[in-house]
Amino acid sequence: MREFGYQRVFDVPGAVALLGTDPEARFLGGGTNLVDLMKAGVERPALLVDVTELPLGRIEATADGGLRIGATVTNSDLAADPQVRRHYPALAQAVLAGASGQLRNMATIGGNLLQRTRCGYFADLTKPCNKRVPGSGCPAIEGEHHNHAILGASEHCVAVHPSDMGVALTAFDAVVSYETADGPGELPLAEFYLPVGDTPHLETALPSGALITGITLPPNPVAAVSRYRKVRERASYAFAIGSIAAALDVRDGLVREVRLAFGAVASRPWRAREAERLLTGGPASAEAFAAAADAELAAAETLPHNAYKVTLMRNLVVAVLTELTEEATR
Ligand SMILES: Cc1cc2nc3c(=O)[nH]c(=O)nc-3n(C[C@H](O)[C@H](O)[C@H](O)COP(=O)(O)OP(=O)(O)OC[C@H]3O[C@@H](n4cnc5c(N)ncnc54)[C@H](O)[C@@H]3O)c2cc1C
Ligand code: SF4
């Protein structure tokens, strides 16, 4: 057992300052990912700065009709919030599709965004892994990769991001707020996760030592008719092998507005902008949904054991958009 310090913090400037005192310090949310990685020896922090008592535990409506979600709101509280359920139902569904009740009671919004990949090699210290040890190699490409990326990966890493919540947040243009010793900042979720390239160990654009303070969802009327669908290898308590967050506004058989994001296909939640572009203004038909999915997935690069994800994602797009069309025209 490696010894480490633990300190609880009660104000944001104090949290940022304390983290800055030790390059080996880490913020601790619910600990549901970080502590597991510490047990595996992947993370070896000298100090844990517990952020769960910070005054960041509220969900509030913003003046323009959006929502502000504090970073220490638990996954359970987010999924149960009446404003989230009414205005962004896919977000509540995505959170409820993740982990188990006990884990959701502990896990926080900030920690969920920063959870690490579930690639088996990443947590296995006996194996090389470019994400854990830059330059050591990527055994997944020749090895076990049935749940790895088909979009936006590189020869250096093909891992996927495991968050369900992040997929719905990506569809709805969420913005991440953070605090550093130099002051506050914001990052649209679309820019939050870095492209893999040859630096898979660098995962986000957050400045070093930044504390996530919250997430803002802009007002988004189309999000009120939205759905999250997750495919996994068993009915509960499993990460996605493919998922989709979708929102649709259909009038007179035409798509007025659509939001689409994919999960478990890339190193980050994948906004399907090409599919959105093709669908907008066109017919709300199964043929159009399939053609849009095909266009989005044309960039897919598959490995021998994950090519099934292309068909899976295409079918998810058609099924979920068809259901939303029926719901909108009921
Ligand atoms: C068995 C199991 C199954 C799971 N299944 C799913 C699933 O199906 N879908 C899914 O989406 N998730 C799933 N999860 C993941 C779970 O949702 C995450 O572990 C959780 O959301 C992380 O939140 P946390 O608060 O516990 O983070 P922690 O473990 O405390 O922290 C994770 C990382 O975030 C950093 N951090 C935490 N808070 C902040 C902050 N405010 N600012 C800056 N950095 C911060 C920490 O330093 C650490 O690097 C599962 C987890 C387990 C253990
Ligand atoms: S896919 Fe990424 S995380 Fe997995 S072994 Fe390769 S480099 Fe490591």
Q: What key phrases describe this protein's structure?
A:
single chain; 330 residues; alpha+beta; Uridine Diphospho-n-acetylenolpyruvylglucosamine Reductase, domain 2; Uridine Diphospho-n-acetylenolpyruvylglucosamine Reductase, domain 3; 2 domains; five-stranded antiparallel sheet; four-stranded antiparallel sheet; 30% helix; globular; binds flavin-adenine dinucleotide; binds iron/sulfur cluster
General description of the model:
- This is Xanthine dehydrogenase family protein subunit M.
- Keywords: Oxidoreductase.
- This protein is an alpha+beta fold and 330 residues long.
- It folds into two domains: 46 residues, Uridine Diphospho-n-acetylenolpyruvylglucosamine Reductase, domain 2, CATH 3.30.43; 274 residues, Uridine Diphospho-n-acetylenolpyruvylglucosamine Reductase, domain 3 (2-Layer Sandwich).
- Helix content is 30%, strand content 21%.
- It contains twelve helices and twelve strands.
- A five-stranded antiparallel β-sheet has the order 4-5-8-6-7.
- Helix 5 packs antiparallel against helix 8 and helix 11 packs antiparallel against helix 12.
- The model has no long low-confidence stretch (mean pLDDT 97).
- It binds flavin-adenine dinucleotide and iron/sulfur cluster.
- Iron/sulfur cluster binds next to loops.
Short description:
The protein is an alpha+beta fold.
Write the layout of secondary structure elements.
Blueprint: E1 5-8, H1 12-20, E2 25-28, H2 34-40, E3 47-50, E4 59-61, E5 67-70, H3 75-80, H4 82-87, H5 89-96, H6 101-106, H7 109-114, H8 165-171, E6 175-180, E7 183-188, H9 189-192, E8 211-217, E9 226-232, E10 240-251, E11 254-263, E12 270-271, H10 273-279, H11 286-297, H12 308-329
Helix pairs in contact: 5-8, 10-11, 11-12
The protein binds flavin-adenine dinucleotide and iron/sulfur cluster (SF4).
